[in-house]
Amino acid sequence: MSTLSTTSATPAFGAALAFEWTKFASLRSTRWTTAAVGLLTVLGAVFVGLSGSLQPDDTVLGGSLTLSVVSLMVAGVVGALTVCGEYSSGTIGSTLAAVPSRGRVLAAKAVLLAGMLFVIGLAACLLAYALGDAILESGKYAQGELFPSLFGIAALFAVVGVLGLAIGTLVRHAAGAVVTVVALMLLPSLFGPLFGDLQRWIAGATPTAALEKLTQTSDASHEAVGSLGAWPSLGLVAAYSVVLLVLAVTRLRRRDV
Amino acid sequence: MIEARELTKRYGGKTAVDHLSFTVRPGLVTGFLGPNGAGKSTTMRMVLGLDTPCSGSVTVGGRSYGRLPAPLRTVGSLLDAKSVHGGRTVRKHLLGLARSNAIGRRRVDEVLELVGLTEVADQRAKGLSLGMGQRLGIAAALLGDPEVLILDEPVNGLDTEGIRWIRDLLKSQAAQGRTVFLSSHLMSEMELTADHLIVIGRGKLLADTRMREFIETNSQGGTLLRTPDEEAGRMRTLLEAHGATVQMDARGPWRVTGLTPVEIGELARGHQLAIHELTPVFSSLEEVYTNMTQSSVEFRGGVQDAEHETKELVR
């Protein structure tokens, strides 16, 4: 049988990445969930602009990106689904038979998610800002600084996708992973006030807090989310996301499929 | 070539695979037999690096699976035909796998053609029948034109034509010098397909032998004998007088054990008895296998779930 049209090269990381991309792009569910990440943010800007519901002390940037916090949760869900979907459908076995290095499988998924969510986050936030700026009454609100915050926001989408991937790998079941991702983003700011002075630490370390600081919304008060700056907050979230991903790789390596 | 050395897997206190050593050679179809829960799937999963052995090792072509540079181009496997995402099309499922091992896109069309799924290539996998799903699993296994094929119950859900198709495919793969390792609970099918057998029970090796030898060695065998009805009584008395055991058999009036066909023929001639049929028979694989696994179960002292296991394989 000489009909095999292979390249003779040993498949490198790029092959694993192409594999993940093909799997990702060939499913309606992941395509739509990812599209929702961008759409929600943009729709939020239109809604806030038209409804006139923005607080007077808020910024155009913060107002335009009101729904980006929901988008961010969906980004985390997308991350979780890329691996939980493999467990629920049973494809995890054929995936790991095709790419036996489990670290490489998760790395490929992480690179794909991060790249895709960065671009989607960047485009959606830019569009949302442009729409918000056009619709909101000019001069009524402080503008907010678009650059370089925009890149930080896009990076946060990428980081949260990776965080979702790590949680999804550790939890495996889609429902459990989604609940965990959403809880991580929502609960600290809901229950933070119960912890008094600790609130700033508990709520301040969440991806949500980092997002509020980056969008310069008036919600990001020192009392609520601590005095840690926007960029250090982003760094903190990125750091523990990477730690969780390393933990996920370790677990996946030790686990029988 | 697949080589397992002292392969052992325990789940909690239960030993699924127990110091299992065997070699699966190229150029042959090797059947992997054992009752449900004997450890066949666990063994195959360890070959593919999906489950990690507690001790022992297994290599494919001299390397552990995880060290193969492009595993799909060395080993094609089908463990569970349901392991396809229902929302993905047949073609995309294969295309993803092809990309993961730097296999060209054209090969996807080739295997689709080979398994007869070209027409449904752009349908979602959830719309496939059980048999088509199985063919998709086979297509995935053949994708990398591998030297080694590992198939867990490949004929599940296939119709007669599909079963024959798989049998011919596997035989031709083996004839090309490839290593073919398949498990099946359909023993009649295994008898037709496999050249060599590895039989396990409770995770332990029971037999590792050529199919023919396995049947000849473990067979109760005997001779089918048909005589005119009016002489049947005399013939039976005669044979029993010479130490034979004579039993009713579904395939003919009697099954004679303890005498060779030559001895039976000579005895009949000496006593002027007519013979209408005299056929040496070996037990079917199923009979041999049942006897064998039953005794292996009895050997272990007939505990509760051992009896359950026996029922499973007699069923």
From TrEMBL, chain A:
The chain crosses the membrane at residues 32-54, 60-85, 106-131, 146-167, 174-191, 230-249. Pfam families: ABC2_membrane_2 (PF12679). It comes from the Bacteria. Keywords: Membrane, Transmembrane, Transmembrane helix. This is ABC transporter permease subunit. It comes from Streptomyces polyasparticus.
UniProtKB/TrEMBL annotation, chain B:
Pfam families: ABC_tran. Transmembrane segments: none annotated. Signal peptide: none annotated. This is ATP-binding cassette domain-containing protein. It comes from Streptomyces polyasparticus. Keywords: ATP-binding, Nucleotide-binding, Transport. GO terms for molecular function: ATP binding. Residues 2-227 form the ABC transporter domain. Belongs to the ABC transporter superfamily. Gene3D superfamilies: P-loop containing nucleotide triphosphate hydrolases (3.40.50.300). It comes from the Bacteria. The keyword Manganese does not apply. The keyword ATP-binding applies.
